[in-house]
Write a structure and sequence with these properties.
Strand content: 25-35%
Radius of gyration: 26 Å
CATH class of one domain: Alpha Beta
Number of helices: 9
CATH superfamily of one domain: GIY-YIG endonuclease
Shape: extended
């Protein structure tokens, strides 16, 4: 994680109407003239002038993570509902989408190699290191056995695969009737309905006119030797390295010799 010399919680107040903004700033230069990056705060500064805002440092922290935890305690749902502040979103790592570029980098680096998991013994959800997740039998991904679906109003949400609504087809997989394509003129990648794709002459499949190398074709051919193609999407197999179970076609592609666990002192059987 990127470490900054100063990590602090601050309060910027409009001395004219007394409205204020509370946020976190991480920097190597204490006097960098930074007074906040909230969306409404920026508009207020433009309206009243920077000279009419007073910034106070409320508390210093050893790490950015500690600072964001403190911000989350203060800038909660009740806080943002009040009319005497400029804050739009709750604090913490999951807060405002209008943070400075420097703060975004800190948050991004914090979440690298992190996984949102569910402990099946305690039923608690939390974020942990990927290595801890891969080495634990009690931790599963929070989306395990869940499917992204849509209803008749095209509202998307996650649902458990055993849910009666999914089984009875009251909701359908989000990708049903959708096509990933590209515009032949703008080269833009689009995700549209199958009907729109067929009716628009400017849309083509994203693999149209793409050329596969002789090497990639040969590699694929060797992997599929002796494989029953017609049954490869229903036949199940187990990866000897990570013990994941899946349909044969996908497992051949992503596991066995290509398994990520192969690099962790596993032996190829």
């Amino acid at each position: 994680m990127v470490t900054k010399k100063f990590n602090y919680l601050y309060k910027t107040t409009n001395i004219i109407n007394k409205k204020y903004y509370i946020g976190i700033h991480c920097t190597n230069k204490l006097d960098d003239n930074y007074i906040g990056s909230g969306k409404i705060l920026k508009k207020a500064i433009k309206k009243y002038g920077k000279e009419n805002f007073l910034k106070e440092i409320l508390e210093f922290f050893d790490t950015a993570e500690d600072a964001f935890k403190k911000e989350k305690e203060i800038v909660n749902e009740l806080f943002i509902k009040q009319h005497n502040n400029y804050n739009l979103n709750i604090g913490g790592f999951g807060g405002s989408t209008y943070r400075s570029e420097e703060t975004r980098k800190i948050i991004s680096n914090f979440f690298k190699n992190k996984v949102s998991v569910l402990d099946i013994k305690t039923n608690k959800k939390f974020i942990t290191d990927r290595e801890n997740y891969e080495n634990s039998k009690n931790l599963v991904g929070q989306t395990k056995n869940k499917i992204l679906v849509k209803n008749n109003d095209n509202i998307y949400f996650l649902i458990h695969k055993d849910d009666k609504k999914y089984i009875n087809k009251e909701v359908i997989p989000a990708t049903t009737g959708m096509v990933t394509c590209k515009n032949i003129f703008t080269k833009e990648i689009l995700y549209v309905s199958q009907k729109e794709f067929l009716e628009n002459e400017n849309y083509v499949g994203i693999t149209k006119n793409s050329i596969q190398s002789i090497e990639s074709n040969k590699k694929r051919s060797e992997k599929l030797k002796g494989v029953d193609i017609n049954g490869s999407f229903t036949r199940k197999t187990t990866c000897p390295h990570c013990l994941k179970v899946g349909n044969y076609a996908n497992m051949i592609r992503w596991h066995f010799d290509n398994c990520k666990m192969l690099n962790k002192n596993d032996i190829i059987l």
